[in-house]
């Protein structure tokens, strides 16, 4: 096991006047306490404690100061003077992360103000660090010190996070495992055996159904509650439904990683989300509201869980993975959502389970070397096609399903 550390950046989303005021108060009190303890030349935690105890700050900020000031005063930093834009430091116990995928801004962060008073603020993470947030939220990563600072009037929180990852000895032959994320089957995995034959396809159909039902319950029930003016009940009911969805996603992503873990040198191959995001021409609303959140969450969970086990994750261009035949490569049709039909008369494939066909194409795309990095796939055609997983343009069946979904969920 190796421990890896990363500093996660979260931008606090437009705190209202009240919260902004509270953040400013914290910053000012912290700055004053820091200066006082620095001027007093505190070289021990107890000396620093005697100074900072008098300031109107949360215990988490005081504890961080007690550790930090002795380092400045003759400790590891040997600072001559203080510059005046130190971030406010908090020990990890004071900061909490919450995820509400049903909201426009999905992530929330709790920042201590003073002892009995905390601020919950919506926060926008760096999208590249989503996997870390899922790991923190899922308990697989640990939170370290946090630092609050403002930059040109915007507030940011930096969170130091650590987690254990496994190094796996790499052997010559890889087993690429294609992972298809869909609506009917939440996830589908398949790979080829040493003779190249598709083997052990696994679908999570029931979980797909459960998630759809929970989501539907969420939208109908919360709307009804909101109409009755029961905003608070709607919110807590919604939170519990989304926790159930999250539990299902965690179960499924853990099972996918366990599937991969049986093989000697597994590589989980996913579709590149960037393409999917960019190809969504009906916007962030649909993407997030209906399915986008699920992709992002499952990808992030798969990534951190795979890394924990030393399993590599690669991404490929998603264009046509559901429309091409895994056997002959011809563009086929989708008579219904579960079925792929090869139209090449020379090909032995007639009808094939559509999600398994897609998973095989995804695995094969990695093998063919047409993998991941965005700069290599800049000339792809996915702007028209790559949206199949979230978009309605994949097939008539999908389009109809999407219309139904739209009718049910759009508000
Ligand atoms: Zn074919």
TrEMBL record:
Which superkingdom does the taxonomy of this entry point to? Archaea
Molecular-function GO term, any one = DNA binding
Q: Where is the composition biased (Polar residues)?
A: 392-411
Q: Where is the Cas12f1-like TNB domain?
A: 295-362
Stretches for region Disordered: 370-411
Keywords assigned by UniProt, alphabetized: DNA-binding
* Positions with biased composition (Basic and acidic residues): 370-379
InterPro entries with a match to the protein in the record: Cas12f1-like_TNB, RNA-guided_DNA_endo/Transpos
What Pfam families has UniProt attached to this entry?
Cas12f1-like_TNB
Listed name of the protein: IS1341-type transposase
What is the native source organism of this protein?
Answer: Natrialba chahannaoensis JCM 10990
């Amino acid at each position: 096991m190796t421990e890896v550390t990363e500093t996660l950046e979260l931008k606090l989303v437009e705190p209202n006047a009240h919260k902004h005021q509270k953040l400013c108060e914290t910053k000012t009190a912290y700055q004053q306490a820091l200066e006082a303890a620095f001027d007093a030349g505190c070289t021990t935690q107890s000396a620093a404690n005697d100074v900072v105890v008098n300031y109107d700050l949360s215990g988490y900020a005081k504890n961080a100061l007690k550790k930090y000031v002795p380092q400045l005063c003759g400790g590891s930093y040997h600072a001559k003077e203080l510059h005046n834009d130190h971030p406010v430091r908090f020990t990890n116990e004071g900061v909490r992360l919450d995820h509400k995928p049903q909201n426009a801004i999905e992530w929330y962060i709790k920042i201590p103000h003073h002892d009995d008073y905390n601020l919950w603020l919506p926060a926008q993470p760096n999208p590249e660090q989503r996997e870390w947030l899922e790991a923190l939220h899922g308990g697989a990563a640990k939170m370290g010190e946090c630092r609050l600072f403002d930059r040109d009037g915007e507030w940011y929180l930096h969170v130091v996070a650590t987690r254990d990852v496994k190094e796996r000895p790499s052997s010559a032959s890889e087993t690429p495992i294609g992972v298809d994320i869909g609506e009917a089957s939440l996830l589908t995995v398949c790979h080829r055996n040493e003779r190249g034959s598709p083997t052990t396809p696994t679908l999570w159909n029931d979980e797909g159904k459960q998630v759809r039902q929970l989501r539907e319950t969420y939208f109908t029930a919360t709307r009804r509650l909101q109409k009755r003016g029961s905003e608070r009940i709607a919110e807590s009911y919604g939170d519990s439904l989304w926790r159930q969805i999250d539990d299902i996603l965690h179960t499924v992503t853990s099972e996918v990683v366990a599937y991969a873990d049986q093989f000697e040198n597994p590589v989980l191959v996913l579709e590149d989300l960037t393409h999917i995001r960019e190809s969504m021409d009906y916007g962030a609303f649909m993407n997030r509201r209906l399915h986008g959140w699920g992709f992002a969450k499952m990808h992030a969970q798969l990534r951190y869980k795979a890394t924990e086990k030393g399993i590599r994750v690669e991404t490929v261009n998603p264009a046509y993975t559901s429309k091409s035949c895994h056997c002959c490569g011809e563009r086929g049709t989708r008579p219904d959502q579960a079925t792929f039909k090869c139209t090449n008369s020379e090909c032995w494939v007639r009808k094939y389970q559509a999600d398994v066909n897609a998973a095989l194409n995804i695995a094969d795309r990695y093998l063919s070397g047409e993998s991941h990095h965005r700069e290599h796939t800049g000339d792809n055609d996915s702007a028209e096609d790559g949206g199949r997983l979230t978009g309605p343009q994949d097939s008539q069946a999908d389009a109809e399903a999407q219309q139904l979904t739209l009718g049910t969920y759009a508000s």
